[in-house]
Amino acid sequence: DASALRDLAERIGATSGVFDLSAREARVAELDALTQAPGFWDDQRTAQKVLREADSLRTEIATWRDLERRVENLLTTVELLEEADDPELAAELDRGGRELAVDFERERTA
After folding, report:
1. How far is 39 from 76, CA to CA, in rounded Å?
2. Is 100 exposed, middle or buried (0-12, 13-18, 19+ CB in 10 A)?
3. Considering the entire predicted model, what is its pTM?
């Protein structure tokens, strides 16, 4: 249903905004810069902590960017269906929308 998908798109956008992905991307850049600093590897414990934080942030960013990409693709599919009735494409939209909703709820509550 196009209305439900648009609602889901708004919820994904609002939620990813709460997570401030741009700030997280900036933090990853800071951490990456730290790894290039002279002496960074001298303290292995601290180095590992920095690497774990950067890895965690990269995973989180990739997950939310993927959700955003998927919702945009599904919204494009809605537009295509508004132009032409295609049962196969409609089934793909329904399946993709259900999968996206499940994935969003999982990430939102993680």
Report:
1. 49
2. buried
3. 0.85
